[in-house]
Amino acid sequence: MQGEISHKGIIKELSDKRIVVGIMNESACASCHAKRVCTVADMKDKEIEIHYFEGDFQLGQHVNIVGKTSQGFKALLYGYLLPFILLMIVLIASLTVTGNEGLSGLLALGITIPYYFIIYLFRDKLKRNFEFQIKAV
Question: Strand 44-50 and strand 4-14: pairing?
Fold first, then answer.
């Protein structure tokens, strides 16, 4: 469907309150016949926790995980765009103030440490913003 991201996965853990689904995340070229010569590093196993679900599911069952496209854009914003903007602001400001390129570069890179630490502290709140639905195949 339009506006949705869908991945196939297998249920790895199952309880009354949550389901953990393992999915294989592949790049566009990972399914190519020449992947052994190319990079296989783009293929990664991911686990997604589902907290709100309806229906009966079993361990090892093949399922579809569905999320909204807007969640992907939000993840892109928090994971890449905001830290990049913050990095550039600190780089330009510190270069203007100090005139030292090396120090400015270190300060700009260093600002990402507290940013990602704050993201880590708010991980539980962010998890609620990134909810997925589970559907049987």
Answer: unpaired
pTM confidence score: 0.65
| Domain range for 24 | 4-136
The C-alpha angle with vertex 81 and arms to 79 and 86, in degrees rounded to 5, equals 100
pLDDT tens for the chain, 137 residues long, are 567 888 889 999 888 888 899 887 655 555 555 555 554 455 567 888 888 788 888 898 899 888 888 888 888 999 999 999 999 999 999 999 999 999 999 999 999 999 999 999 998 888 777 778 888 88
Q: Based on the structure, what is the number of domains in the chain? A: 1
